[in-house]
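Moderator note: this is an archived Q&A kept for reference. The question asked for a predicted structure of one protein chain; the sequence and the answer are reproduced below.
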Amino acid sequence: MNAPEEDLDIKLQKVSADLITDFDKSLLQFLRKKRQQQNDDDIISTAQHKQHQEQQPVVRSRVRARETDRLVSLLDPFQELPQLLDPQLPKWLPILADAFLEYQQQSRRRAAREVSSSSSSSSSSTRSDLLMPLPAAIAKILYTICKIRGEKVVVRFLRNETRYLELLLSALEDSERNPSWTWEERYVVLLWLSHLMLAPFDLATISSVEVDSDELPLIPGFRWPTAAAARLPGITVRILPLAIKYLASPGKERDAARALLVRVAMRRDMQQLGVLDALVQWALIALRPRWDVAEQTPYHYIGVLSFLSGILVSSSDTSDMDRHLTTLFYTIHRATAEADPAGSMMSSALARKMMIKVIRAITILTLRNSGSTSQDQASSMELVETTIGFLLENLADNDTPVRFAASKALSIVTLKLDADMASQVVEAVIESLNRNVLWVRMNPRGDGGDAASGLPTRTKDLSAVNPLEWHGLMLTLSHLLYRRSPPAENLSDIIHTLLMGLSFERRNTSGGSSGTNVRDAACFGIWALARRYTTAELRAVPTTSTTAAVAAAVKSHNPGASMLQIIATELVVEASLDPAGNIRRGSSAALQELIGRHPDTVEKGIWVVQAVDYHSVALRSRALQEVALGVTRLAGQYGEAVLDALLGWRGIGDADAAARRAAGVSYGAVTAELAGDGRDPVERLAGSVQLVLACVGHLEARQVEERHGLLLSLAAVLDGFPAVAVAATAACADGEGAVAARALDRFVSLTVIALTTILTDCDSRAYRRPELIAEAASRLVVSSAPLLQAAVLSAAGPSSSSSSSWTAIAAALQTGPATISQGGAALSALVDNLGPAAAPQQVRDIVAVVKNSLNTKWLLRSEQEVISAASDAGVVMLVFSDRTSREETMRSWADTVRRKPVGRAAGAVAANGGGYFAALAKAYLVVGSFGREEVKMELDGDGGVVGRVLGARGGWIRGLLDECEGDVGSHVRLQAVRAAKWLWEAFGRQQGQNQQEMKVKGVEEEEDRARQSQLQVVVVEALFLRVLRLAAEKLDRVRVEAQGALGVLLRPSQAAELKKLTFSSKPYFSSLLNLLSRADDWLDPAISAAVAANPDRWMDELMAGLVSSADTGNEDLVIATRAALCDFCCEEEQQQQQQQQQKSGQSNAEAICAALVRNARRCVGQDRVLVPTLEVIAFLFHVGVFARCVRGVDYKNLVLLVQKAGYKTGNVRKIEACIKVYGAVADLEGKGIGGGDGDSQRVMEGVEDARKRLGALMSHPWPRVRGLVVDELWGLGLSSGGGGGGGDVDDGEDVEEVKNIKGQELLGVDWGKAGKGAVKGLIGVFGLDG
């Protein structure tokens, strides 16, 4: 799990000023408008009219819904940093509140005028989806601000005058009679009313309406106070039914209704009238439904419980609720045990959470008010014990919010208890954590521990515990530490539990992780521990009494470490390796708190905090490789702990293959760092190898993922062998050189034996996921190249154990991946270094096993990771093979690729033969290192494999670039572009080597290099135009990859310029269009000469890709592409026109139009290219580009091509594109197109044919097609005169009158259902019959 490279809060800080300015400028215009000059109802006289004009703008009645959404979108980003809005809230919120109130006042005045005038008609305006009422828009904005900043902050800026109370209440009542309000409006008004309930006056003095006792509304389960019914204020009588109704709402109205009901109930005047007692009794009845009453929804119980929680919290400093505590407690507790009557309540996690909050509040009030008598104390203790038992049970709830609430409640209750009872709660939590914990033999390094040395011989196995319960218990422990409830004497067991929780991991049945919550809670606990306890108290905790601490000390090779150092080391491991990003960052925060609060207690503390930075651990790959390596350089104990953890579930046991690859690289890098800093680097490297081999030996056959990670880790360790060999031989004095040589000999011998065993096992055994084993074993073969080289050289030397021989061997060693990446020169040096000497038998055995695995398994895989690794392994195998075996192997690979398989084998080789192609390609680049010319000619001769696969005649990659369509085809095109880019880069490296080698080689070598360069030009030419087309196509992922591939063939400065351009921008497409004219300056000379020789083909391929972006891409892409196309066609600078005329004899517009016509002829049957081409042709007609290309385009021939494209097609979109082109050509009549009589004649012939085709399509059997033709007739101006239909009009008649007459023929008729007679008449009127 990776966090984003750049956090959203950083981006928000950069753009916050622009967002706030935009919202501020738009707000007033959004809410208000200028008052109209005249209004018959309001303006009576001229004096009143002047006074009216001087008033401020009035509020709008409706606003655009789109503008509302835009304003909301300006506010939404501030959820990351809500405090950025604080300076603006005192300005914005009063403006919004005043507009809301003014609208309500105007609405009431309008309603009063309508009643006084006995007007019974309602508003004639209708609601539109494009408009929304102003109160709804204001409420939506206010809710957004509440969501960002919190409702308690927002209500402080709302108007609190009591005169608005009845106004808002009446508006809410009106919305009940006419349900047109949105939920945001109800939420804001209820919240506003709850704020107005803080008025210091009695509600009786505010109410304007009194309600008689016989007019009290009926509320189910609620009994109005009998004695005070006649004296209840009208506001109270009106508010209670509304608040109780919305208390059962499933939306946000419930929260506002709860706040309103609590404010009403807790008012002193309402308590005196008995409203509080009546509401409590109603809540008790609501929580105990009768069998004869329909069961309520869970939201009803959630609302009731939230109301009870609210009044209990509000009365925490008073005795208002003391008389109801016992009744409330046992009613709610009984509801948790009785499944039937409260089934819907217990089925809701939110309801259970609210029950916990109510019980917590009751228990705290009970502990505060515990009486002095023994009976009261016994009753209080019984209630507290029942609460603690109830909370401990809910710590294992299936829902996370319930566990959060239970843990927090238990810690708060424990804080109120006396010391003895609080320590009992802590012991109960720790005892629950030790439940179902199994003890197994500790075997971290392949042994059974050492009891005599004091090291532990057993460790805890947490596979049988409940991860949900552990999460709740760990949260409770963390909350207790945060409130410093446990005494310092109990910290030993607590720290032991936190360290176990920090490394807790469980997999569910689907393979997902279920231990993340536990580790998160443990991080919180360690953070609280470091914050609440002193350094002396933590130093006093003995490490020997904590099994987890002793195990951690063993891992870090520091048995004498303090408890603070052990905790810091575990946090470093967690921050570097944990799969979850929030855990890595949480561990980093806890580590910073630990080191900051307790200075000089952790080794290299300040530097460790800087290395394990909050932002550095966001990306897991960076945390695994850079952060882990950084802390290892600070102190070896951190590296030792990281190595041990990498061999567990956080490294090689991770479910993600990419994470295992990164873990393997990290294991090798950390091992190399520790070996470089140690006194005996060879022994340290051998220890890591033996540790990995021991883990491999303990694996079951089903543990394929772990085997994959371990083999990758072993490969990464072997990559460090060359540096360790150099360090070992350089660090030893003359007297100790023999010791280092013997250590290196022993390491090489033992490792080669282990490699033989591992590779033989991979070759002979069938595993569950063979692609993982193939990749890991191939990587291991590549990384073992320096080891095999050392084995060959040491066996061929005169004295393998002498320091001088190992000094020469170490200087010649190079890591396997580095040798492969450097290509032919490095491999040639490696072959020369090996010499003609025969390899030892162990090396020959490894080569034989690898050869068999490559031919039977690895090269047949289709996964990209396996192909890359297996092809590299094939090169290493060829290097260490003898000459005869090399020829035989390469001929067999060539025969496999050349042969066209039949039957079942055809699909297998066709789908899974990519490894052979990759191996041959890499072998071709270094084939000169392998000897005989015959094999070389077999590969790159005129009929050779590479020539057939990659050259102009084979066309393999070229075919993939051309023919693959659809979503799956896009992935194929993407990989083909990457393959072409890889070839071009490889050819570039080979060309550079050729230039250097030609200076010292003979004439024959020069001719050979020249022939290879000629083949490379052919390959590049065959692929360049295809990649150019894909660089302009509509799919972003293909376009961006092709952009990078084109950069390989450009000169460095131009490649950098192209790379800076956004791949969906207008400048990017303009650069592609102008690339032909700049080929000499931008492209390599050899490539530009070969490709630019045929400019028509260049333009055809480019337009074949560009039309897809200009027609079927997203809106922004279409706009950018068409804008670039128009600019390119409309260039009128004299210098550019002269250059273009001299070069191709065509202008830009003529070149584009001619290419589109050629593609329309060439791509018949390829709708993916043909339909966008027709659409772009029609577009260029409409913008006036095609109409100017009389010399380069035959319009009669164009109409014929379009007719062939649409012949007997069922593609409606293609027919629509054809109609657009017909209409565009027909619209050329009378526009003076053509430079002479011959040109004009050709234009008129095309116009006549286009009219005939439109007339023919009016008889098409599909109504939609006929409708499209009618739309084209109306929009393109065919009714402007001319044609057969205009012959009965005299020259002096008004053209506009003719348009109106012909336009009327199109109106009033459903042409999709019109008969043949009407269609024939229309054809005659418009002259479409020729």
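Archived answer notes: The mean pLDDT is 79.
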